[in-house]
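Summary: Need help interpreting a holo structure output

Steps to reproduce:
1. Submit the protein chain below together with the SMILES for pyridoxal-5'-phosphate.
2. Request a joint structure prediction with the ligand placed.
3. Inspect the structure token block that comes back.

Expected: a single structure record containing both the chain and the bound molecule.
Actual: see attached output.

Input attached:
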Amino acid sequence: MSLEKVQSDFYDSTSLISPILETIESAKIQANRNQDRIKLIAVSKNVESNKILDVIKSGHRDFGENRVQETLSKWPDICKKHPDIKLHLIGPLQTNKVRDAVSIFNTIHSLDRRKLAEVLAKEFDRTGNRLECFVQVNIGEESQKTGISPNQTNEFVKFCINEHKIPVIGLMCIPPADKDPGPYFAFLFEIAKKNKLAELSMGMSRDYQTAISFGATQVRVGSAIFVSRNK
Ligand SMILES: *Cc1c(COP(=O)(O)O)cnc(C)c1O
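--- attached output ---
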């Protein structure tokens, strides 16, 4: 391996996350949200452990995964060494994976149907481990996407909180891929406000700055961190 290659790898590993943190800071200033705390969730799906460890070394602690199985195979060892890591489930959750999910994740961003709420609540009761949850809203009402439809969200949030004592802290969405995301983020903000929910999980690599300007409190960024930009 040439010295040049070694140096560029070293440079890469120390700066994976800092450009994103800087962009978040400038987006906050532009949106007049200097005082707000915005959580960056580093989405590490399909990313191998070495790269994840580089980001952990730089001090980052919040990570997102979209599959329970992959999370169980990658994270238990890392979490043993770094017990302050917080794992966020951002992908769809099948009810037969609830027990595993509750055993490894800290937050669930994809609570999207009654059956799942019921099974989660049972597991929370059984373990005493009540994970904070986001209700996922199918904000563009797309048939291929999961999530509760916007006009059923109020009722579903009440169902989760009142009937099942699920700690719902906010709403999550993924806007339609081919449209301007701004109006969808604004819509999610309105629904959250109506339901007195403080947290908004919205914004990915291509639109997290826009999401911040519309009130995001947690952004889920994967490829902008982990996919090499200097190739
Ligand atoms: C993969 C994924 C992300 C991150 O997407 P990038 O475009 O890589 O930033 C965010 N949210 C969800 C739900 C995802 O599945």
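--- end attachment ---

Reviewer comment: Residues 43, 45, 66, 90-91, 174, 204-205, 220-224 surround pyridoxal-5'-phosphate (CB under 6 Å). The chain has one domain: 3-226.
Status: needs-info
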